[in-house]
Amino acid sequence: xxxxxxxxxxxxxxxxxxxxxxxxxxxxxxxxxxxxxxxxxxxxxxxxxxxxxxxxxxxxxxxxxxxxxxxxxxxxxxxxxxxxxxxxxxxxxxxxxxxxxxxxxxxxxxxxxxxxxxxxxxxxxxxxxxx
Length: 131
Known about the structure:
Elements: E1 9-19, E2 22-33, H1 40-57, H2 59-67, H3 74-78, H4 83-91, E3 94-103
Antiparallel strand pairs: 1-2, 2-3
Helix pairs in contact: 1-2, 1-4
């Protein structure tokens, strides 16, 4: 069932920071946006256009750009509560952004790690019995 044309859509996008082949930070953001933005890529494009417009047209945006060492990224966006940024986002179809999940791993565990071992008993010692 399709949403009505005026109903906002929600898109979740995961942003990662990697170093040394390891994820240092994972943040999943929920973007509530207009129906005109049809894909994740269109949401990202609208986000970049809105932030660029805000930086180019407002003193607050320019100051944030300079404070970020001209590297305004998702972390900067999530900590910015400027009214004019919110207005720029809305004019580009992004109605709101919320952090759904943030994770800073202490150690990386491979997604494909096998979680069962046929030679271990419940107390962790080898019992010689397979599955």
